Amino acid sequence: MVNGQVVSGDFSKIIMRVKGSEQVELGELVVINDYQEKFILQVYDLVYGSQISQQNLEMVAGMNLEEGNFSIMDEQLRNYQLAFLKPILNIAEKSKTCKKLPSFFSKVRRITKEDLFFITKPTNPFFLGRLRSGSKELDFDIFLPGKDTLSHHVLIPASTGKGKSNLMSCILWDLIDKDYAGLLVLDPHDEYYGRTGLGLKDHPKKDNVSYYTPVSPPPGARSLKININKLKPEHFQGATSLSDPQRQCLYVYYKKFKSNWIVSLLKEERIENVRFHEDTISVVKRKLISLLNLDFENGQLYCQGIFDTIAGENTIAEICQDLEQSKIVIIDTSYFSGAVEILVGSLITSEVFDKYKYYKKNGQLNYKPVISIVLEEAPRVLGKKVLEQGSNIFDTLAREGRKFKVGLIAITQLPSEIPKNILANMNTKIILGIEMNSERQAVIESSPQDLSQDNRNIASLDKGEALVTSTFTKFAVPVKIPLFKEFVKKDEKKIIEHDYMGFS
Ligand SMILES: Nc1ncnc2c1ncn2[C@@H]1O[C@H](COP(=O)(O)OP(=O)(O)OP(=O)(O)O)[C@@H](O)[C@H]1O
Ligand SMILES: [Mg+2]
To answer: What global pTM score does this model have?
Structure first.
């Protein structure tokens, strides 16, 4: 099974000659057994090598092309491929990071399942997929420790169509019956519940999924209505741009009228000793009316969207309760503008975070599940430009959420738009294929493991192929994410039994 031999290099670049009959791929994992020690290495580049001078090679090619068949003696011996390897782990004793070079001329072989005995299944497992070596999938499941992974934030960067949503569907499906985590999913494409196709609603334990939608909720779903008195000025941070005087106007009304502040502001109720510029008030009113989809005529308020003056008193409390019972709550935001989605997201997230801060204070936090907030197109709230206008609940979470067991799963095509300090705080990155070099660099520079040689490897990731870099793994693990359609089949038997029980 030997497929190569070490011929030169240095610590960051071990060069192996590839056996003529073997094929080696970028990203492939290989092993060197060296007396008592065992090294795992990964292929990060491939080049040609030859014993014959370039000039002679060119002449042979010329004779071949111009005059027909002409071959070199001992071709396999004289021409070959060289693979560049980076050492990722020394697994002799307690799988340490490599600090030694394997012996010169060591034999190199492919990795097998048995080499991975040191990777054990953590408590509260968070399933990712199978270990991948190049494009080959090994029969070996990769898990992360779920509680830590989710509270220390997850970033999923990838170009469009590389499998972000598919990955998220698999993660959610797997977490439905796990009681260590509750997830809040803001779903701008309404793709996770499976209103029209396969989705979380088809899980045997679908009772652990709550689905809120503003439009014709299917059986079992809830209609999304939120009472306007639950809104606070800080929820508008990130959802809409406000000048300083406009922001002050919101806070002054909130301070004076508390939960009634929006209606009071729309009615322009007077506040003693405070006068706002006419323009300020009218701009603020216009923004509130359009954002909240209200109609305000002759002192009367009419609600047309999800924000209501009568209904929706308990919605936020119910959502928080579901999350604390480690359920998955999906909010269908596909009918909203981006601004309204962020407003709703901020509102729920702030409430969850405040509750968990309170639990930490009174010692209850240990008994609560981790809560993770899933954000699509994360730079909308975590982007540099947005944060220049002031902090919002999501970047507060990114910075200090882990202390309170509240984390983010940020999905994005443009990680470079997120400030470096926030990227660095995302302790697990599930990197799928990224086409743009600048985006790859942003991820590489903020990764827990050294990925400086993995640029090419990341560029060549196919749909569903991931590289997982995390403070909770010993090395950056190549993973094949399952296709959701296939992944749910493992529970299919249970689905049939479940339906059968439903009928009886
Ligand atoms: N793990 C996988 N294995 C095989 N094929 C996959 C996998 N993940 C995704 N695909 C294929 O790629 C297609 C696009 O995947 P997906 O919608 O998840 O990408 P995305 O990154 O969310 O794209 P977008 O940026 O448009 O939201 C899927 O329809 C599926 O056919
Ligand atoms: Mg998607």
So the answer is: 0.91
